[in-house]
Write a structure and sequence with these properties.
6 strands; single chain; alpha+beta; 19% helix; oxidoreductase; globular; GTP Cyclohydrolase I, domain 2; four-stranded antiparallel beta sheet; two-stranded antiparallel ribbon
């Protein structure tokens, strides 16, 4: 198995497909580069999702996240790109990605992007606030 950063996301079968359960993943070491200055940008990513048929395999997610270390991306673009890639590989019932970027020039940036399958609704009110 490779320990090199790569974009090869993997999934496994949802062990409880009949149930809506929330998966929360905290990624405190996200790094990309500012496309204007080339300086590193650091963020904590909070992923929350309700799987449908498959779940995202964590080691592949780690390698995928690491692959952004040398990429120049705006905060808004990289957050939405990551969400798009995760949706494409897993087709979740619901997914939210929150990216909290460290201060840069006295400004903090938080980007929240989310997705919900068509015709799928929460059966009960669910507060998807990460409790990490």
């Amino acid at each position: 198995m490779s320990s090199q950063p790569n974009k090869n996301l993997k999934v496994f079968d949802n062990p409880n497909i009949e149930r809506n359960f929330i998966i929360q993943i905290n990624m405190p070491e996200f790094t990309c580069l500012c496309p204007k200055t080339g300086q590193p940008d650091f963020a904590t990513l909070y992923l929350e999702y309700i799987a449908d048929k498959v779940c995202i395999e964590l080691k592949s997610l780690k390698m995928y996240i690491w692959s952004y270390r040398s990429k120049g991306e705006f905060h808004e673009a990289v957050t939405n790109k990551i969400l798009d890639d995760l949706i494409q590989i897993s087709n979740p019932r619901f997914m939210r990605l929150k990216a909290i970027f460290n201060v840069r020039g006295g400004i903090y940036t938080t980007i929240i992007a989310e997705y919900q399958q068509k015709n799928w609704t929460f059966k009960t009110k669910i507060d998807l606030q990460y409790q990490g």
